Amino acid sequence: MATPNLSYWEHQSFFGPADVAIVGAGLVGLTAALYLKQLRPDWRVVVLERGPLPSGASTKNAGFACFGSISELIEQEKHGDLQAMVAARWAGLARLRELVSDAALDYQPVGGYELFRHAEAGLAAECSNKIDYFNELLAPVVGQARTFREASAEAGHFGFGGVGTLLKNEHEGSLDAGRMMRALLARTWAADVPVLTNCAVAAIETAASGHRLQLANGAAVGAGQVLLATNAFATELLPELAVAPGRGQVLVTEPLPEVSLRGTFHYDHGYAYFRQLPDHRILLGGGRNLDFKAEATTAPGLTAPVQQYLEDLLHEVIVPGRQPRIDYRWSGVMGFGPALAPIIDWVRPGVLAAVRCNGMGVALGAGTGWQAAAKLAAG
After folding, report:
1. Which of 12, 62, 95, 270 is most open to solvent, judged by the fewest CB atoms within 10 Å of its CB?
2. Angle CA 157–103–363, to nearest 5
3. How far apart are CA 87 and CA 85, in angstroms?
4. What phi-psi label fits residue 318: left (phi over 0), alpha (psi between -120 and 50 degrees) or beta?
5. How far apart are CA 367 and CA 174, in angstroms?
6. What is the SS3 assignment for 233-299?
7. Per-residue pLDDT of the chain (379 residues; tens, 9 = 90+)
């Protein structure tokens, strides 16, 4: 491996030994760095990011500040303590809003809707019948008696095609994922934590003084402790972790100023989602349930079946009869596993993993970062 051309100053100020090296500059990694500096202000902390920007989902998500539609919650309740999991998501969103500020996030408390087409009347009825149950379950979490309500009368206002039932979550919101990450990056640098991009970690090696992180560019960083915060990419360095990738594909239309969609919107058990952006474009993503195996990858990319599914949903349901130009397409990668809760645990001596947000990274990220920081600070 080639030796990088690093100066004395670069070694001292950027690649010098750290008390903690954080692998991954996404939402979890940066919030962990900020909380760790609050807990241990004298510690030297460095963040290492494989790409020019966070490569997973933090800058590629849809900007939903959500904790689950009713159809999602019905399924998730089969796999663990749902009230505790929603509480973690709710608390994580509160931490994020406190840490960054609503203004910096462009947080909008617009509420969220779940759509059911006429052919899905059975699922719609099942979910409608659960409104009172989930309102009672979540009241201690959100501090309000009502979270969900019937909202089918609003379907005509949005101009949807073929939608028979709408259910609304009063406590969802939206935010700007790009502004969120810019604010976190600015705060991290201001906290005297260097964020080094294009620094992929090739290996984590045990050394006499702690750990040596060998970088793909030939440099190396020594650290007393390591936090792995790479979510879906975690098994590249720690293959024993129970984390599987799930790629999410997204498209964004041309501006549609005559369309008004105030809210966030979920469809197809939460596997499809859309919202209108401030410049009147429609953002639409999802579809990995069409072929879970094909989308269980960390590789960026778009597939014809998923893109066609999203465009059909756009043309038939969201803006029926219209075919707006698609100006942006991309994919991001989320981390999933057999349990609802993230992994926040020591996986090797001195190596902590904070990964597997199960598609709820915006909601869980700041809370996961806080818990990781607390564990690192306690040693």
Report:
1. 12
2. 75
3. 5
4. alpha
5. 18
6. HHHHCCCCCCCEEEEEEEEEECCCCCCCCCCEEEECCCCEEEEECCCCCEEEEECHHHCHHHHCCCC
7. 456 788 989 888 898 899 999 999 999 999 999 999 999 999 999 999 999 988 678 999 999 999 999 999 999 999 889 999 999 999 999 999 999 999 999 999 999 999 999 999 999 999 999 999 999 999 999 999 999 999 999 988 999 999 999 999 999 999 999 999 999 999 999 999 999 999 999 999 998 789 999 999 999 999 999 999 999 999 999 999 999 999 999 999 999 999 999 999 999 999 999 999 999 999 999 999 999 999 999 999 999 999 999 999 999 999 999 999 999 999 999 999 999 899 999 999 999 999 999 999 999 999 999 999 999 999 8
> What six digits make up the tokens of 162?
């073929």
Give the Cα separation of 155 and 260 in Å (integer): 12
